[in-house]
Amino acid sequence: MSTAKKTKKRVTTHRLWEMKQRGEKISMLTAYDYSLARIVDDAGIDAVLVGDSASNVIHGHETTLPITLEQMIDHASSVVRGIKRALIVVDLPFGAYQGDSKNALKSAIRIMKESGAHAIKMEGGSFISASVKRIISAGIPVMGHLGLTPQSIYKFGTYEVRAKEEEEAEKLIEDALMLERLGCFALVLEKIPAHLAQKVTETVKIPTIGIGAGPGCDGQILVTHDMLGINKEFSPRFLRRYAQLYDVMKASMEQYITDVKSGDFPNEQESY
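User: That's the sequence. What structure does it adopt?
Assistant: Structure tokens below.
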């Protein structure tokens, strides 16, 4: 029996905190549309991220930067309609919060009001503290994101592992504690050394969600299109593929084309 069938109790930010306290791992995946959201939720996932990774896997952009606030709201609205149990977190896209806390709050309010999501996620540490503080003060839950921050890809110039050096590692821990003090309910730790992620997890009281950060985090997240093998080009070390749907879907479509062209589909039983 799946977790979803065992309990239909809505997952909240407080419930994630409770899961950390009792040592229960948190599962999280991405979703960008109604149909995929229903499957993810029915599987029993704890939290769903409407990620700006939609810029890559849905819209075909090279980076996450081009996706707009309006597009994120549209994706989030579709996901909300398909979710009955999981906590729904939405990425604030690039340009919606950096350098202007008032604009950050307006962006967060739009996502919450227009999509019906439960929380937002923001990338960065001390340089976004004013925006984080203003959004949380308005009653909007914020999930932080440290380590590799894809919205800053042109600043770093690489997707390599972050915080390998002591100075950057210490700064990451400081930022984690700062985000906790400001009131963030959880932190995503992306592509950092496993020992550092475990240290952060043991240091902060809020849950940590890892992606390429080792097993010591309180939970894990993957991009659903990646773990299902819909995307074949993206194969980082941290990714475990649980299916090869690209091949399954392609073979099914090839068979459909063959059946249509041969006249085999539709047959008498498939006709009125």
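Residues 246-272 form one domain.
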